[in-house]
UniProtKB/TrEMBL annotation:
<keyword id="KW-1133">Transmembrane helix</keyword>
<dbReference type="InterPro" id="IPR025333">
    <property type="entry name" value="DUF4239"/>
</dbReference>
<feature type="transmembrane region" description="Helical">
    <location>
        <begin position="6"/>
        <end position="24"/>
    </location>
</feature>
<feature type="transmembrane region" description="Helical">
    <location>
        <begin position="182"/>
        <end position="203"/>
    </location>
</feature>
<protein>
    <submittedName>
        <fullName>Membrane protein</fullName>
    </submittedName>
</protein>
<keyword id="KW-0472">Membrane</keyword>
<dbReference type="Pfam" id="PF14023">
    <property type="entry name" value="Bestrophin-like"/>
</dbReference>
<feature type="transmembrane region" description="Helical">
    <location>
        <begin position="210"/>
        <end position="228"/>
    </location>
</feature>
<feature type="transmembrane region" description="Helical">
    <location>
        <begin position="44"/>
        <end position="65"/>
    </location>
</feature>
<keyword id="KW-0812">Transmembrane</keyword>
């Protein structure tokens, strides 16, 4: 099921539930009931709870967006570091240079073709990816420079492999959900309370009031969906992508 279908169902369901409750509730209202008699304190509390929940939603959206941005940045750093390894290896003898570049290509191909799917489904890295990156590290560190030029390139190559390894570790950590379960509990309970409070305002069955009630509930559903979608940086529709690898290594096909 696509994320957009999930969003459509969630928004439609929230809107339908609210409208049904409003209609059923109005059937129980007496003909002489006056909606203007809503106590001021109820209107004040409804407004304050709505403001507080809006702040919480904003902080949650900012948090998951920051997590997604960090995940995408780790991918970019890893791809750039591996590209630097291939480029700086040009000063080495052909046999060593070709071996380093071939092992880097093999690692990138595995990340794009295999590891990315594992991250999206299991939120973890693969052992094969670790083995391939260790092989690249061994290619770089095991070679003993023969000339001053090669010696000058040795340490930067080691540093770039270390940077790629560090970015890979960050990518693995960012693959997990960023929102704890207790936060989701608070968001869902807050949504129910916030939407439920609109019934205390004695909404009538006029088109304008029903429209506003439906749009309000649909908006809450959309914002919760947005948080849920961003909460898996590598696993859902608006997740981080492997574009940095594909752009840096155009010969690799995902």
């Amino acid at each position: 099921m696509s994320e957009w279908l999930v969003l459509s169902i969630a928004m439609a369901s929230a809107c339908a539930v609210v409208l049904i409750i409003v209609v059923l509730n109005n059937r129980r209202v007496a003909d002489d009931d006056d909606p203007s008699e809503t106590p001021d304190v109820i209107e004040y509390m409804t407004m304050m709870i709505g403001v507080v929940y809006a702040i919480v939603l904003g902080l949650a959206i900012a948090g998951v967006w920051e997590g997604r941005s960090a995940a995408q940045e780790s991918v970019r750093i890893e791809a750039q570091a591996l590209h630097e390894v291939q480029a700086r290896a040009s000063v080495y003898p052909a046999e060593v240079r070709d071996r380093i570049r071939a092992d880097v290509d093999a690692y990138v191909r595995h990340v794009v073709d295999d590891e990315w799917k594992v991250m999206s489904e299991r939120n973890t890295l693969t052992e094969r990816g670790t083995e391939l990156l260790d092989k690249v590290r061994a290619d770089v560190t095991d070679y003993e420079p023969k000339t001053d030029h090669e010696g000058q390139a040795y340490q930067p190559l080691v540093d770039q492999v270390a940077a790629a390894d560090d970015a890979r570790s960050a990518r693995g950590q960012n693959a997990e959900a960023t929102m704890p379960g207790v936060v989701w509990f608070g968001l869902i309970i807050g949504a129910l309370v916030t939407v439920g409070l609109i019934f205390t305002l004695q909404i009538r069955r006029t088109f304008r009031e029903l429209l506003l009630a439906g749009l309000f509930s649909a908006l809450i559903a959309f914002l919760l969906f947005l948080i849920w979608d961003f909460d898996a940086p590598f696993g859902r529709g608006m997740s981080a992508t492997a574009e940095p690898f594909l752009d840096t290594f155009p010969g690799i096909t995902g």
